[in-house]
Amino acid sequence: MIEALLQLLLNGAASGGVYALVALGYTLVFSVLGVINFAQGALFSIGGYLTYLLMGGRIGVNGALPGWGLPGGLPFALALLLAAAGSGLISLLVERVAFAPLRRRGAEPLLALITSLGAGVVLVNLLQLLMGAEGYAFPHGADALAGLPDVLVIGGARIRTIQVLLLLISAAAVLALSLWLERSKGGRALRAVAEDATTAQLLGINSAAMVRLAFFLSGALAGLGGGLIGVSVSLPGPYFGIGYGLKGLAVLVLGGLGSVPGAIAGGLLMGLAEALVPSDASGWRDALAFAILFVVLLLRPSGLLGRRTVEKV
Amino acid sequence: MTTAPPPSTVISPSDLRRRGALRLAALLAAGIGALAWLGRNTDPAAKPLAAGPISLGAAIAFTGNANLYGQDQRMGLAVAERWAQQSGTPARPVRLQLEDGASDEPSAIAAFNLLIRQGVIALIGPTLSQQAFAADPIAQRQGVPVVAPSNTAKGIPEIGHFISRVSAQSSVIAPLSLDEALRRDPAIKRVAVFYAQDDAYSTAETAIFQKALAARGLPPVTVQRTQLADNDFQTPITSALQLKPQLVVLSVQAVAGGNLIRQLRELGYRGQIVVGNGLNTPNIYPICQRWCDGILIAQAYSPELNTPINRRFQQLFRQAHGDRPPPQITAQAFTAYQVLFEAIQRLQRKGGLSGVTLGQARANLMAELLSGTYDTPLGPIGFSPAGEVLQDRFYVAEVRMDPGGRDGRFALVRERRLQESQP
Q1: What DSSP element (H or E) covers B202?
Q2: Residues 67..96 of B with a Cβ closer than 8 Å to A: which?
Q3: What is the CATH code of the structural domain delimited by B54-168+305-391?
Q4: CATH, domain range B171-299+396-421
Q5: Phi, psi angle pair for B359, to nearest 5°
Q6: Which of A49, A218, B45, B346 could form a disulfide with A28 if both were Cys (CB 3.0 to 4.6 A apart)?
Q7: Would the CB atoms of A132 and B197 count as touching at under 8 Å?
Q8: So what's the ipTM on this one?
Q9: Distances in Å between the alpha carbon of A183 and those of A197, A295, B382?
Q10: CB contact (8 A) between residue A158 and residue B268
Q11: Which of B222, B259, B262 is CA-nearest to residue B242?
C-alpha cells in the first residue's frame, strides 16, 4: 500500500515538475505584459531538439539535412543549459515579431494571443522542415547521465532514474528563479515592471529591457522542460511541446494568473491528479485534471494562489 | 360635393413582417437554386474525362503525429512514379497530386474533397484507419475509387464498393507473431496487453490479439489502456509488472510504441515483446534504440522477397534513399500506386477511358482494379469483390539492432503462406 502510494507520488511529482516549469514561463510573460504567449509550447519542442543536437544527435532521413549533426557531443548538463539559452533567444525573437509591433501600436492585448499562436505554428513547422517528423531519442539514452542505473527502487517503488533527475532539475530551476525574483536587483526590477510598467519606468527601470528579460527567461524555462522531457521519453515529433504547452496553460490558470508560487503548486497538483487516475481509466485522465481546474475556479476564480483584481471605476 | 377617402396606405406591422419573410424566403430559394445550378455545372464527375494526363490523388499525412508514416508513404509514391515513368510510355501519362491529409479526420476529409473537386480519377490514402472511417464515405458517395495503403482496421472495405485496400487487415497478420513468441517459449502463461484506446487501428488490432490469445488459452492477466498522445508510461508499466507478465503485446502507434518498449525494458521487463503493425517502421529504431532488439512483429512485406518487382522497387528506393531496406509502409504505398497505374493502363487498352465522363471513368476503373491480379513488392495480390486485399505471403520479423543501438533492421524469421487469402 505504502509502496503504491509512494509510486503514485513519484509519478505525479515527476510530471508535475515539468508542468510547473512550463507554467512558470507563461507566468513571467503574463505578469509583465498581461498576455499569454501561445508560442510557449513550440519553444518547449525547440528546447528538446536543441538539446538533442547539442548532445551530438544527427538529423534523421526525413529532415532537411539528413545525417547532419554537430561534430562531437556535449555532456547532457551543458547541452541542456545551452538549449535553454537557445530557446530563450528564440523567445526574444517571438517577442520582437509577435508582441512588440502590437505593443507599439497600442493594439488590444487579445490580438497578441493570435500572433503568438501564429508564431508557435510557424516555429513547429520550421522544426518539422529541418528535423523531419520522426522521433528522436538522445544519443546515449539514459546511459549519458553519469552512468546511473536505468531504474531506482525507492521504498519498493520503481522509478526511472531520469524521472528522478527530471524532478530534481525542475525543482532546482524553479527555486533558483524564485530566489532571483525575490532577492536580486534584476528580479525586483522585473516585479516592479509587472506591478506597474509606467511607474517603474519613472523610477529609472528600463521596462523594455525587462520585457525582453521576461521573454528570455520564459523561453529558457520552456526549453529546459523540453530538454528534460526529451531525454526522459524521447522526442516524439515536432508537435510534442504543444500538448505540454496546453497543460502548462491550464496549470497557469489553476495556480493563479501571474503567481509564481501558484504555478508551482498548480503544476504539482495537476501532475498528482493525473497520476491518481488508474491506467485502466486513463481515458479519463485529462477529464479529471480539467475537472479539478473547473472546481478550483468555481471556488476560487483567481486560481489557487492568484490575487483577486479589483476593478476601479 | 364630397370625395371618397383614399384607400388606406398604412401597412400593418404584421403585413410588413409577412412581406419581409416572403422576400427573404424568395431570396434564399433563389440563392439555393443558383448554388445548385453552379454546383451541377462544376461537378467534374459529370464532365467528359479531360484529355491529357490522368490525375491520381494521394491524401497522406505530411503533418501531425501520423507524419511519421506519411513520410514513409511519400517515399513509396515517389519511387512508384519513377517506376511508372520507366515502365514504357503509357498512352496517357498518369500524374500524381499530393495533398496533406494530416493526422486527423477533418484534414483527411478536406484533402479528399479538394482532390475530388480537382477531378482526380482515384485516391490513395488516408494514412490512418481512424481517418479512413471519416474520409472514405466522402469518396464513396461521389463514386471515387480509393486504395488505402495503410488502413488495417476491420471494416475499411465495407465502407462501400469504391473503397479498397492493399494493407492486409490486422486479423490476418497479427496472430502470426504471437505464434512465433509461443514457439520460442511454450511455457508462457502470463500475458500483458497494452493498447491506445483512442485510436481505431489500435483498438481493432488489440481485439484481434486478445481473441488470438484467448484462442490459445492465454487470456491476458492485464490490459493496460493508454492514449495516442501518451509518452510517459510509468504508471501502466509499473501496474502491469506487478503481475509478472512473461509476454507483452503492444498495439500502439510508432513513437508511443518505441517509448513504451524502452520504458518497459528500463523498468526491468526482460520477457518477449510482440508488437502490432503500428511499429512496422524503421522510425522506431531511434526511439527505443538498443531496447528494440528482439521484438517480434508480423509483416505484410519483406525486403528479402526475391521477385523481379521487389528487386526493382528496392533498387529504385536505394537510389533515392541510400543503402537501407525500404519499410513495409513504403512498399504498401508503392503497391497502391502500382495497382492503380496498371488498372488504368489496362482500362485504356480496353477503351474504358474513351468518350466517357469522369464519373463513368471512375466507375470503370474501380471495376477494372478489382478484377485484376498484380505482381507487387508485397508478392502477388488481388482483391475480393468487396475491395479487401487478397495476399497470401506474410512474414514474421525480429528487430535486430546494430551494436551501437542506433540503427537496426527487421530480420526475417519466418515466412507464412495463408491458403485462405490467395489472390
Answers
A1: helix B200-215
A2: 67-68, 70-71
A3: 3.40.50.2300
A4: 3.40.50.2300
A5: -60, -45
A6: A218
A7: no
A8: 0.76
A9: 20, 34, 74
A10: yes
A11: B222
